[in-house]
């Protein structure tokens, strides 16, 4: 059963519509990512759920209750900002206890100790925010939000201030914390890598709409349109024809489609992922390396074959101008 449901949500800034007919459902203990470019409406949606922006049309229900008329403080929602919004003059313990002022002191202490244990910061209770690393500050912000026992957690660009060397370690740690507390969460990012690593499901947004919603691997392998395909990874598009007997005819060769594919005869654009392309040095090969970038674990190559330029990633080092044999390891055909 869904903890959060959003139906037909619309929101305008003056004459500009920023959210259009949005529908979304979040289940218990599920982590949802709102993924999209700047200005697509993802942070606006987060603020509307939190109550920081008015709902003009449609409705939002949390744990069966309509939020439309509820003030921010009446919604059992934890909100973690991009800069964590910790109080610099308060200790870690006092930051965590900030939303617990109505509870008896001994209960505040018990909850604080539990939260410190949950986020692995025992012994840090008397430190101040400036004495913590970015990752530790983030965990304090999460502990403060979880201390109030929210029914939903909202995170705005939670990993943008974490350096690249520790980002994936933090993603794994925060995901484990949220799962251990059985709290559903929605987070905003423009990074597909963060979305893939952190989310159970992804809502790709564009111009105020959710273009596609589903599990990360489903979206990657079955994008509904070129926009989603491009946003989720590097792509090559080849014009092709599909015959009645399901043979794909392209400038780089002919390929028999899988029998279970329901594809009509006609013209298509074939999405060929970089990882589906295999290069092998061969003086008689039909491909020529025309571009090369070293990216650490692998190289990004541009290869020209039969007048078509394609992009691929390979761990082997090749030279500009080198002739290569181009092979294909296609596990699915994505046609638009």
UniProtKB/TrEMBL annotation:
Keywords: ATP-binding, Cell membrane, Ion transport, Iron, Iron transport, Membrane, Nucleotide-binding, Transport. It comes from the Bacteria. It catalyses: ATP + H2O + proteinSide 1 = ADP + phosphate + proteinSide 2. Its EC number is 7.4.2.5. CDD domains: ABC_Carb_Solutes_like (cd03259). GO terms for cellular component: ATP-binding cassette (ABC) transporter complex. InterPro entries: AAA+_ATPase (IPR003593), ABC_SmlMolc_Importer (IPR050093), ABC_transporter-like_ATP-bd (IPR003439), ABC_transporter-like_CS (IPR017871), ABC_transpr_FbpC (IPR015853), Mo/tungstate-bd_C_term_dom (IPR008995), P-loop_NTPase (IPR027417), Transp-assoc_OB_typ2 (IPR013611). The keyword RNA-binding does not apply. Residues 4-232 form the ABC transporter domain. It holds the Pfam family ABC_tran. GO terms for molecular function: ABC-type ferric iron transporter activity; ATP binding; ATP hydrolysis activity. One of its GO terms (biological process) is quaternary ammonium group transport. Part of the ABC transporter complex LktBD involved in leukotoxin export. Transmembrane domains (TMD) form a pore in the inner membrane and the ATP-binding domain (NBD) is responsible for energy generation. This is Leukotoxin translocation ATP-binding protein LktB. It comes from Mannheimia varigena USDA-ARS-USMARC-1296. The lineage of its organism: Bacteria, Pseudomonadati, Pseudomonadota, Gammaproteobacteria, Pasteurellales.
